[in-house]
């Protein structure tokens, strides 16, 4: 038990969704935490725009954030999307409309989806110098007394009792601790983009596609998802009311669009695909959907090239607990999954809430670290495996060439 030791200091590598949510939970519980993030600012890298929030993700965010930030998250979230998901063929003939079960389905403060950058800024609010930007982690070493030292590319170091690997899919901590554990390439290549709602609607977007998550599966192996992000309130207005220091920025309502194609149907090498500019990626989507229903073709002419980018989908399969010690993982670092299931970020914040509980119990002397981390990882492996399998099933359903391991 920790009763005779000095207070615990937790080092978190990665200030993405999971790392920041953990920092909020620990900060709120009075546990010393420092987050080291390689990005220079909250804007970050290309990771998509709109995030669906699952019931489990919503519970976790509510558990880790102070009430005023939860209110801010609700106020800036997507207008409720009660219609759920609808799948069409390329002629815009409805194929499928699954209902989602949601215990908070009718709650007026339900969080259905959020803008990623707005979420990240909310997760940063109130953390002050807990978060150090521009710090790229390089490697760690364990000390003789069971602590851990993180080394950064700028030559600096930081020492703590626990090192949390929240550094995402390409985790350097995982590469050092478990070099064999590399997420599998699913072969799917994806183009993410943002389409301003006003241009799409003014340009004749059909009513049926406007206010719900629509998925179009072409018989030619290409498919597209369209997800509306309609802010309940302007982020700066909501922040002025609820947390004036949160550095939120306003954004017009938009659709996030996702275009998936299997690499074998791409007609070009990965090298050529990933070298395409935003303009070229938009042109590729327009060209590949040129025989689709005119209402569908038209929408992509409004995509914003400057925020269009390509990614390769990957998955950690199987998800495994890491070895016992002061290094513990969270989020994509331990369970990467394709975005098809919309649960990667939700699983990361679920980890953050569970790990907060574990660390609080250790700090209070109620649990041994080994026991608390083992329990956290056992539960995490179980629900993350479900998330990975569900996401793979959806990826396989829509792109038949996605193979089992
Ligand atoms: C295009 C796209 C759309 C998605 N849509 C959804 C969705 O709708 N719903 C959903 O639940 N999930 C979605 N996901 C998945 C989701 O984004 C991830 O699962 C989630 O971001 C994982 O959180 P994380 O904190 O583990 O990792 P990340 O959010 O990736 O954060 C990792 C952080 O670590 C930092 N970092 C990395 N290396 C270093 C280093 N060496 N030193 C310091 N810092 C480092 C990175 O800069 C980053 O900020 C989507 C993913 C993509 C790519």
3D structure, described in words:
With about 400 residues, this protein is of the alpha/beta class. The protein contains 13 helices and 17 strands. The strands form 4 sheets. It has a 7-stranded mixed β-sheet with strand order 5-4-13-14-15-12-16. Strands 7-2-1-11-17 form a 5-stranded parallel β-sheet. The longest helix has 30 residues, at about 370-400. The mean pLDDT is about 90. The structure holds flavin-adenine dinucleotide (FAD). Flavin-adenine dinucleotide binds near residues 44, 166 and 332. The site of flavin-adenine dinucleotide has 34 residues, from α1, β3 and α12.
Summarize the structure.
The protein is of the alpha/beta class and 405 residues long. 34% of the residues lie in helices and 22% in strands. The protein starts with 8 loop residues before the first strand and ends in a 7-residue tail after the last helix.
